[in-house]
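Quick entry between incubations.
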Amino acid sequence: MKIDPGNLRRLLGVVLLVAVLALLGLWLAGWTRFLLTVALGESLAVIGVALLMRAGLVSFGQGLFSAVGAYAVAYGMRLWGIHEALLLLAVAVAASTLLAVAIGPLICRYRQIFFAMISLAFSMVLYSILLKFNTATGGSDGMEVTAATVLGYHAAAKALAGVYYYLTLACFGVALFATAAYYASPAGYLARAVRDNEIRLEYLGASVSRETFRAYIFAAALTGLSGGLFALAVGHVSPTLAYWTKSGEFLFAALLGGTSSPIAPVVGTVVFESLNSYLSAYLPNVWQMALGAIMLAIILLMPRGLWSLYERFSARHAA
Amino acid sequence: MEPLRAILGEARSVSTPVLEAVGLHKRFGAVIACHDVSVAFDAGELVGVVGPNGAGKTTFVNVVTGYVAPDSGYIKYRGREHSGLTPRTAVTLGIARSFQHPQLYESLTVLENALIALAVKERRHASWRPLKQARALQGASALLERFELGEAADVEVGQLPEGRRKVLDIAMSFALRPSVLLLDEPTSGVSAAEKFALMDTVTGALAEAQMTVLFIEHDMEVVERYARRVLAFVEGRIIADGRSADVLGDARVRELVLGVAEGA
Ligand SMILES: Nc1ncnc2c1ncn2[C@@H]1O[C@H](COP(=O)(O)OP(=O)(O)OP(=O)(O)O)[C@@H](O)[C@H]1O
Ligand SMILES: [Mg+2]
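Done. Structure below.
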């Protein structure tokens, strides 16, 4: 199959970014590299949230799918004895995608605040299940996720964090390219068409619910992968992954970065995670207030997110 | 009320009509917006629809395209009965429409709007190939050229003047290559000076395509000039249907639609 020149350009862009991050991984100190591992993994969930926002859907419960992805990894190890990271991640993606296929037809009938609330409700149901059935789920303590092999390679304990960084980076690159290709594809535009005008879409002969369902499933798959990567990197899963504050953070990061480009939510996540870590370290008492103030400033000054700064800059230089 | 067609006795072709409404009825509370409407259209007809505000013209289009479900009645498309229609199924059959208030993708460009219409028409919803691939771009440019929108291709639709929006709205329905195209007031919101130019563009584009076209229109000069057949709606009923000169010359139409008191 001949690759489209537009997609080739997108692929090169992603490869370049991943190469830069790969080099950065050699140079970064252990703790910072770990933060970046977590942020890159989490950014896939934020991309999922942003992807839904492009279709006019605000998810207040995307944590549902990251929790499913994370617990899928934990159970994959415990119940099926899978210890290969790529297999575990495949299980994570499959589990979250299947769940989306099951509940999507119901959820995708709703819009606006109703979509937000029903997605929130589903995530809170999972949260209480994870909490209540503690013999199977470990309750509020969660479950441990031990070291996995990567492509059969069993890393020494000291090297594991580094291996996981590159594993996350590889998954991140694949997911980012898939998202970029999706945004440029007819389905990606049809999602924006849903947000802009549902009547016209139906009068073109397309189905609004099918297009939102497509976006919903793609977002769920990305978020499941995100949860799986989190479980591996942190080595532990707990019900808080499904708690609404986690979904709120995804939303915050998506708003912070913006939704116009696949990379915008990644910027949002990295900035958010940095703020989170450094503000809580340096302003232990008021850091949440500081986060709130930053959120307010973004909404008032840059309603289209940090990425709009770059867009303004590049538009000026193109002119 | 006897439809004027019977009186005028216009010769109708014997072939199966492409679209037929049979006893369509729709009531909104106290208002009967579509009152037992039965009417048929042959392939290639260019029909003007007139009637005062609130006469039920838009409702007729809404019912025929399945946006509004009729209380009773059905449509026949190429001789086959269809009930429980939705806009999507109507479009799939080959019945498309434009809107009195343009329904467009405001945050996207004119070109992107055209590309989306064509992608849906060609069933490329689930393709991983970009929307803006070379062949699709050619098709979209040709569509825009045909409706004289080529220069506006990269303009965001939200920034487009009303006249251009109406044309784009029509172009997007045209892109579906329907056999029946229902245009709801194509020239409303367009300056008087531009109306004929717009209709020339539209009818020019449609003529080559052999579509059956209905257009709702308040400007009688436009109706006279472009329609060969005219339907007059009043209070949900078709009170006259026939050759345009006959219908527009009819006393009752002149009184109820044009507001001209006869003999005054
Ligand atoms: N969805 C609706 N709910 C309630 N009443 C409606 C609805 N749609 C139309 N009507 C009523 O039905 C009647 C016919 O309206 P319609 O829009 O079809 O008229 P029209 O001939 O298109 O008028 P105009 O020339 O002003 O566009 C009006 O009295 C209108 O108020
Ligand atoms: Mg109307």
